[in-house]
Amino acid sequence: MTATRICLTTAFLFGLTASATAEMNFNRIASFATPANRAEGEDRARETSPEIIAATSDGMTLVYTDSPLGVLGIVDISDPAQPKPGGNIALPGEPTSVTLIGNAAFVAINTSQNYTDPTGVLKVIDITNEAELASCDLGGQPDSIAAAKDGSFLMVAIENERDEDRNGGEIPQLPAGFLVKFNVENGVADCASKKIIELTGLGGVAADDPEPEFVDVNSLGETVVTLQENNHLAVIAADGSVQNSFSAGTVDLKNVDLARDGALTFDKSQSGIAREPDAVKWLDDDHFITANEGDYRGGARGWTVFNKDGTVVHESGASLEHALVQIGHYPEKRSGKKGIEPESVETAGFAGTPMAFIGSERGSVVAVYDMADPAAPMLKQLLPSGIAPEGIVAIPGRNLLVTANEADLVEDGGIRAHVMIYAYEDRPAAYPQITSAGADELIGWGALSGMVADAERPGILYAVNDSFYALQPTIFRIDATAVPARITKATPVTRSGYPAQKLDMEGITLDGAGGFWIASEGRTDRVIPHALYNVGADGEIKREIGLPAELMAVEKRFGFEGITRIGDTLWMAVQREWKDDPKHHVKLVAYNLDTREWGAVHYKKAEPEKGWVGLSEITAHGDHVYVVERDNQIGSAAITKKVYRIPLTDMKPAPLGGALPVVSKEEVRNLIPDLLALNGYVQDKVEGLAIDVDGEVFISTDNDGVDDHSGETLFFRIGRAD
Q1: ∠236-109-165 over CA atoms, to 5°?
Q2: Residue 703 and residue 415: Cα distance in Å, rounded?
């Protein structure tokens, strides 16, 4: 079959404009799937999890801890756009943290058999030849490790973490944690120099069980340490004495979502929420930054700049969470807990500007801040990461930033864990491609499914969310003439003025009278009907049309995934085969609004190499009907993510219950190169296709509501349909 080429409008491809003013921005240039570090013959289906990551002094090699495999992973980034696997170095336990001095990796390893007798070891490994240079007993279970700026000593946080299943996870649970300091001689830890620094008596929750979490060392040799469960911070002088100790304090939050209920409602407040910081990083010799992930009592959903005297210099409050809301990365299922959970922090100077990088574990985003004024940080960018960024390392000498993303969804057939690499470069920011920033109100969005273009205004589109937001079915207006595209309005879909229930909106088209027709994909096991809904411009449902008996007799879960209108006829694409369909054939179902007659044709789809292939959108334009055909595979396993077109002359519905004609199809575009344009991995759910009055073709993906998903929504145009 001959592919029809869509003419590219490169000025707008992937949301970038040719006229954009040149400025330095971070853009992702590569993604490295960590299963690639498994040697030939090893089981690559085993879970892998890159967590804490560091770089050699020349910035050419990355080293990360991988606790499920019990290894140290190596990545060659001599060409950062083409990272190469360096293999794994086996370790005698669970690595929890790593830092490098030159080519020597200092790895903190948990060797504990239980919570009551914690043990650990520090291994020093030459990563060029994998030789072990030293092995030092730690005397407990380590969490993090940091090196002095001049490489003269190491600090290790010995957490001796609590058993979360014991006594409801409450502390104290002894033995108590502490810090360990080692001198470094000739690039190797001197085990005999081991010095224990006690922290008992400092914490405000359980002073005899400090549980130190994260450490960092400034250029004065001062160490800051978080005592997360105690909501406490301490600064240790270079001689090992406690220089200062103070509570991490509390935060009052406004306009937050506190209920896991399938709706994005940012109208609640919280008072006195303990910060419970996780990661901490010095910004300079006087200030440090905490990521306030929270633990079992708190979690302030943001980050804080402290002076080492204990003064709060800046508190982000809910501002970072709101920024993630606007780009569709808010994890609604975490609303009842700790929201976006900022967990990781990195600081570095790029092009003379001090910067902070805050990683959101649950939102899968790294926020970039200009920290020239520690009291007034400026949010510069939001970078798409893999799922659950755990570690961040900046390599300013090479203008690089790297994240280690710990989530590996191998057991669910999902995306594997990744290390992602970004370059600070002289070109526009490529992400986000769609945002609700600039709207009159805070608009939360995600799980975009169907799309349709306005009948008169070029670049104006409408999209719906699917049943992930069960309590908040919404029609979004999108201004795709902006860069990035902007969601400017959210209209709730209602019945009698209340949010409509039992909808799974997967398709939308114009009704020709100022409103819309919406296709809902049914699930009879969840009492969600297969149905069509006529919705007014105000979102109120005016008419509901159920499926006829002939279709209900053969229906299955995977129903209508798109809708379009051709004259007086609505056409719906059924995603997968129903009970009466031939193998690899799905129905395009027709409903005539005047005669109320149903009919259908058959569409032959690709045979899947793995999983399934189905239709996820249908749009009429000119002399053709365009459909999105996709498999349910993600990342390197993805094969079918394509746009096809069908001649209108083939769209002649036959009566239901008998043999159906099979339409012809012509490949228009293989979307996989487009889905890789931001140097991430191929997203699974290409679900939106709209063609505006000028013939511009727009594509969008469904981010599953940031549930076991990186949260990335790709929104781009692929050219003109003529």
Answers
A1: 90
A2: 13
Beta bridge partners, 254, equal 269
CA 586, distance to chain mean position in Å, is: 32
Q: How far separated are the first and last CA of the chain, in Å rounded?
A: 19
State pLDDT tens for residues 327-348.
999 999 999 999 999 999 999 9
- Cα–Cα distance measured from residue 223 to residue 102, given in angstroms and rounded to the nearest whole number: 21
In a domain, 626, yes or no: yes
**Beta-carbon-side half-sphere exposure of residue 8 (alpha carbons within 13 Å):** 9
**Nearest to residue 358, comparing CAs of 387, 327, 390?**
390
Q: Please tell me the predicted confidence (pLDDT) of residue 19.
A: 38
Average of per-residue pLDDT across 688-702: 98
Q: Give the burial class of 81: count Cβ atoms within 10 A of its Cβ; 0-12 exposed, 13-18 middle, 19 or more buried.
A: exposed
Coil, strand or helix: which one is 468? helix
* pLDDT at residue 11 in the model: 32
Domain count, the chain: 1
Q: What is the pLDDT of residue 22?
A: 66
> Are 291 and 358 within 8 A, CB to CB?
yes
CATH code of residue 483:
2.115.10
Contacts of 151 (CB under 8 A, 6+ apart): 101, 102, 184, 187
- Strand 598-604 to strand 585-592: parallel, antiparallel, or no bridges (unpaired)? antiparallel
CA distances from 444 to 360, 441, 506, 553 (A): 17, 9, 18, 38
**pLDDT for res 435:** 98
* Strand ranges, E, within 275-341: 280-282, 287-291, 303-307, 312-315
In a domain, 25, yes or no: no
Parent domain of 441: 435-720
CA distance 500 to 470: 9
- pTM of the entire structure? 0.96
pLDDT at 588: 98
DSSP state of 654: B
- Is-contact 66 421, C-beta < 8 A? no
Beta strand pairing call for 389-395 and 448-453:
unpaired
| 519 in any annotated domain | yes
Check residue 204 and give its pLDDT.
85
Phi/psi for 567 (5° steps) reads 65, -120
Among candidate residues 90, 99, 98, the one with its CA nearest the CA of residue 68: 90
Residue 546, in any domain of the structure:
yes
Rg of the chain in Å (alpha carbons): 27
Select from 721, 718, 490, 494 the least CA-distant residue to 12: 718
304 contacts 277 by C-beta, under 8 angstroms: yes
Rounded CA-CA distance 306/287 in Å is 6
Pair of tokens at residue 721: 């349909």
Q: How many Cα neighbours within 13 Å face the side chain of 122?
A: 34
Residues 674, 622: contact at Cβ < 8 Å? no
Question: Burial of 50 by CB count in 10 Å (0-12 exposed, 13-18 middle, 19+ buried)?
Answer: buried
Q: Where are the alpha helices (DSSP H) in 350-453?
A: none
